[in-house]
């Protein structure tokens, strides 16, 4: 666990549109859509640096995925951040002397790891654990295929199901759990901090979960026989709806923290309406009770107060999880005209 991976640090959020959602590994429809217990996280935006092991631990077994990641905007965006006049202006307005050392900035722009002195250090740019969660609690579970001599190829379906369940319970945002993973994406790509916004930080950088996930970093290596292949049409349909649902949920939660007036609140309200518009278009093309429930719960009006916003967010999340785990995408061909084109991430 003490192994160090020497990788260039830093990535600027605006240069990495779609990238945070992009570290996805796709599996079979049964693996992707079935059998995982739904859970509503009490603090969906929280990231625990005390659980970070660093990208070197992941790279040991995930060499092809790591190679693709090293060529992505997650890594190359670092130079943009350190040289960007916009970033310097935002930091100055916030009184931040060094972005990489400030937890408020670095929590999204880097991978922070707790140190023995209680401080947090950026051990990498946006990396594996930024998307999949701090791995200290689940990395050994993730690596256990059923015994000393077992491999991913020899693992039994029963053991794999148990392993995935244990990883979920330990806090892993698994690649085939789209709602869970999209939550990590929008935790950084949808800003709800009014002080950051007042300092000039962009609120929403244009991330669309499906498009971002199908850029350069798709990580479809396990079922793709070593090939970074795109998701199937069926998976894309489910990802599209799940991503819009999470965008709606996170915007509602952001408004609950700052339900007043101002640029931040106005932009979050716009994000709510934009997500609702997409989901309404989905509802027009396919009869989905879960999507109808999301739309009904989030129809609150411009003056909704925090308790109502949080209740709506909870309903949306539960409906999104029910949708994801109850759909394999085969019956959603009618929404294909709504699906975006992959972005270059």
UniProtKB/TrEMBL annotation:
InterPro entries: Cyt_c-552/4, Multihaem_cyt_sf
Keyword Transport found: no
Keywords assigned: Signal
Domain annotation Cytochrome c-552/4: ranges: 57-133
Signal peptide: 1-21
Classification via Pfam families: Cytochrome_C554
Keyword Signal belongs to the record: yes
Gene3D superfamilies (alphabetical): Flavocytochrome C3, Chain A
Highest taxon in the source lineage: Bacteria
This protein's name: Cytochrome c-552/4 domain-containing protein
Source organism: Engelhardtia mirabilis
């Amino acid at each position: 666990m003490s192994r160090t991976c020497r990788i260039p640090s830093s990535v600027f959020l605006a240069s990495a549109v779609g990238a945070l959602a992009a570290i996805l590994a796709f599996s079979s429809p049964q693996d992707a859509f079935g059998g995982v217990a739904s859970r509503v996280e009490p603090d969906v935006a929280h990231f625990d640096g005390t659980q970070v092991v660093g990208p070197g631990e992941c790279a040991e077994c995930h060499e092809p995925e790591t190679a693709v990641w090293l060529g992505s905007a997650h890594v190359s965006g670092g130079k943009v951040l350190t040289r960007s006049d916009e970033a310097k202006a935002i930091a100055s307005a916030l009184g931040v002397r060094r972005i990489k050392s400030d937890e408020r900035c670095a929590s999204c722009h880097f991978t922070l790891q707790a140190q023995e002195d209680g401080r947090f250090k950026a051990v990498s740019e946006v990396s594996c654990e930024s998307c999949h969660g701090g791995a200290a609690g689940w990395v050994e579970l993730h690596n256990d295929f059923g015994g000393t001599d077992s491999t991913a190829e020899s693992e039994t379906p029963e053991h794999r199901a148990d392993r995935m369940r244990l990883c979920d319970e330990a806090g892993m945002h698994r690649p085939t759990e789209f709602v869970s993973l999209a939550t990590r994406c929008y935790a950084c790509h949808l800003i709800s901090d009014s002080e950051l916004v007042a300092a000039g930080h962009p609120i929403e950088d244009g991330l669309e979960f499906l498009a971002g996930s199908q850029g350069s970093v798709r990580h479809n290596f396990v079922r793709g026989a070593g090939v970074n292949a795109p998701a199937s049409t069926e998976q894309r349909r489910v990802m599209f709806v799940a991503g819009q649902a999470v965008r709606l949920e996170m915007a509602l939660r952001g408004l609950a923290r700052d339900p007043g007036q101002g640029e931040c609140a106005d932009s979050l309200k716009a994000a709510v309406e934009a997500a609702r518009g997409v989901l309404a278009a989905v509802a027009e093309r396919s009869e989905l009770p879960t999507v109808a429930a999301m739309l009904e719960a989030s129809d609150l009006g411009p003056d909704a107060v925090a308790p109502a916003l949080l209740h709506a967010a909870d309903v949306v999340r539960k409906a999104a999880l029910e949708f994801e785990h109850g759909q394999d995408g085969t019956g959603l061909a009618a929404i294909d005209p709504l699906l975006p084109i992959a972005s270059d991430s």
